Amino acid sequence: MSAVLQFSDVSVTRGRQQLLRNVSWSVNEDERWIVMGPNGAGKSTLMRIASTKMFPTTGTVTVLGERMGAVNLAELRPSIGVASAALAREIREDEKALDAVVSAAYGMSGRWRELYDREDERRALRLLAEWGASTLLSRSFVTLSEGERQRVLIARALMTDPELMLLDEPAAGLDLAGREELVARLADFAASEVAPTMVMVTHHLEEIPAHFTHVMLLRAGQVVAQGPLEQTLTQSNLETTFNLPLELHRTGARYTAFAR
Ligand SMILES: Nc1ncnc2c1ncn2[C@@H]1O[C@H](COP(=O)(O)OP(=O)(O)OP(=O)(O)O)[C@@H](O)[C@H]1O
Prior knowledge:
Blueprint: E1 5-14, E2 17-27, E3 32-36, H1 43-50, E4 58-63, E5 66-67, H2 73-76, E6 80-83, H3 85-90, H4 97-102, H5 118-130, H6 146-158, E7 164-168, H7 176-191, E8 197-202, E9 214-219, E10 222-228, H8 229-232, H9 235-242, E11 246-251, E12 254-259
Parallel strand pairs: 3-8, 3-9, 6-7, 7-8
Antiparallel strand pairs: 1-2, 1-4, 4-5, 9-10, 11-12
Helix pairs in contact: 5-6
The structure holds adenosine-5'-triphosphate.
């Protein structure tokens, strides 16, 4: 089985700053990864490379079997679904939720023609329903709450039926009920056989949905630990990652931690 994502000795340097240092990482088809680390650890940089929006300074990256630098990235991008705050900023304020989802089929934001294919619209309606956003179709994106926005963004990310889904802090800014609802939906989705390979960035242990299988812990651009979630998400690895004495608790599939 070839890896969906393969980083080999990847470093990213900007001026004198090393955003990523010698990161090697392999994400396989049925895996659901969490990427976790403190502010500035390099998580977004990692995701920008995985989404083919940024090239590493050194090292090689293979996405969906294609080596970055040796392939037309425009052809690869529909196979990668991304939901991030950066992407949300590209959606026009007055864009309706339905249009924000359908337009992903054309790899762009903004309604660019009067009538979408019926097929595309049906798919967008189904995805919005699956993510609990059926009542939001004709609402302008800017008027949506943070939780509603995240669900529309996820539906958008899935519009092209991607093989790889990248979620950058989908639960950021949600209240407790909103977070729990989204985490439950992500858990169900992660368990589904039709779901693509998933990578989700988060700062918070409470946001790790059930059925996520692997974790990468990053600090200052370096991998502290990576591997299967249960073995890798240990108190000691988290203490190193966040440079803080911690007490880690697990209840069923959910995690939380406190400073000691
Ligand atoms: N173009 C750039 N030039 C210099 N430094 C940069 C550049 N882009 C990012 N950085 C720095 O690289 C580091 C990693 O940034 P990155 O956004 O990947 O971290 P992050 O883990 O996603 O952080 P956060 O959790 O706060 O979103 C940060 O210290 C950031 O200030």
